[in-house]
Amino acid sequence: MVNLEWYRTFKAIYKTGTLTGAADSLFISQPGVSLHLSSLEAYVGYKLFDRTGRKMIPTERGKVLFNAVSEALSKLEEVEKNFQKSTEKTTPTISVGMCFETFQTTLEQYVSTLDFNLIIGFGQYPEMLDQLDKGILDLIITPKKGTSPNILHEAFSSEQIILVGGKNVDTEGFKEILKTKDFQKVEDWLKQEKWYGTTGDMEHLFQFWLMNFGHKPKFRPNYIVPNLNSIIRCLKGGTGLAVVPDFLCKNEIESGDVKLIWEGSKKLENTLYFGCRKQTMYQNEIDHIKSLFRNMMS
Hints:
Layout: H1 4-16, H2 19-26, H3 30-44, E1 49-52, E2 55-58, H4 60-88, E3 93-97, H5 100-105, E4 117-121, H6 125-133, E5 139-142, E6 151-166, H7 171-179, H8 183-192, E7 196-198, H9 203-213, E8 223-225, H10 228-235, E9 241-245, H11 250-255, E10 258-262, E11 268-277, H12 283-297
Parallel strand pairs: 3-4, 3-5, 7-8
Antiparallel strand pairs: 1-2, 5-11, 6-9, 6-10, 6-11
Keywords: DNA-binding, Transcription, Transcription regulation
Protein name: LysR family transcriptional regulator
Pfam family, one: LysR_substrate
């Protein structure tokens, strides 16, 4: 069965005469509009528009299809509007993407205070950038900027990637080796320890090792756990090493449950960005979530 969003996009293009105009009216990206149109044309088996410069001129087949679906779509949109008013009382729903650990450490504690509906999505950063561009997500928290002209990136904080360990790790012995500035010995010492990693992204460990030793780590972690927060809890047992963002273990380091072992020969820092589309109907809700993050990360 055909996706009704394809028809909605088709109607918007027909009404506005441009892909950009349709994207603006639907609050989605232009690539998303193009994808819907090409999918509908493939489904019905013929061209619906002739592309003349920037204008989208409906073909005869396109005019026939518009006349066939326009009234039905208008009725459906009216039903949708009335149904939403009666059941949800126009409460907006915001979809936000970020990594699981960031959510647990920051926004999770504030979810019950929000006066709008919230859907949290987790995934890899390229995937979240694509979903934001297509209108699936309304806001993302990311250390990586995308290239889409439809997305605004706003830097709001930074994270430092650090080497941490359990409180029983022999940090004094490690400091003595560091004084020699023999990084082969430093690497050999680190490889002899027990290491924690995650089932997902190991980019933090790879970046840290490349910056300090000039190559990726030539070992696999001894213990693979679900996420970075799991690593922090395991390190509180007293032994083991891991490379993690500093904000995830700030409290544990201050309490002495986890030790800061090494910041590296050079500090490895990532800038954190808010990513959102240039046009959105949920600006107030997005600004509220942004303010929560600024307060937490300041």
